[in-house]
Amino acid sequence: QEQLVESGGGLVQPGGSLRLSCAVSGRTFSAYHMGWFRQAPGKEREFVATISWNGVSRYYGDSVKGRFTISRDNVKNTVYLQMNSLKPEDTAVYYCNTPSVFGVPTTEGRFYWGQGTQVTVSS
User: Fold this and answer.
1) Does the pLDDT of residue 1 top 90, yes or no?
2) pLDDT reading at 2 higher than 90
């Protein structure tokens, strides 16, 4: 059975950085595109970034472009999200999943969602 385990969240001051990780098990990780999504309290889920199965193509949401970087390690079955220049509006629970459609800012995932990891940006 597939499992998605996100980690690396925490409390950080504005302007700070965090690196999120998502370990995937139960399927052939390297065969799937991967993405990061987030959901703030009282708001709908938001597309953050996505990366192709081979790591060649990457797409970002407008609100994180230039600040966040998605990457993956197909040996470790893990996808990462490096977040720099964090802002209070980045506060949310962050999730990973395979996007239902690659290359567009969809908020739908193909698999069951994990627990996510909380990111709080505050002074």
Assistant:
1) no
2) no
The Cα diameter of the chain in Å comes to: 41
**Which residue shows structure tokens 């990111």?**
119
Rounded Cα distance, 37 and 61, in Å: 10
- The string over 61-90, giving b where at least 16 C-beta atoms fall within 10 Å of a residue's C-beta and e elsewhere, is beebeeebbbebeeeebbbbbebeebeeeb
Confidence of residue 26 (pLDDT cuts 50, 70, 90): confident
What pLDDT, in 10s, does the model give residues 49-90? Answer: 999 999 999 999 999 999 999 999 999 999 999 999 999 999
Which amino acid belongs to residue 30? S
Sheet holding 46-51, edge to edge: 10-12, 117-121, 92-97, 34-39, 46-51, 58-60
Q: Let me know: does 122 contact 13? Beta carbons within 8 Å.
A: yes
Residue found under tokens 């690196």: 19
The pLDDT value given to residue 27: 84
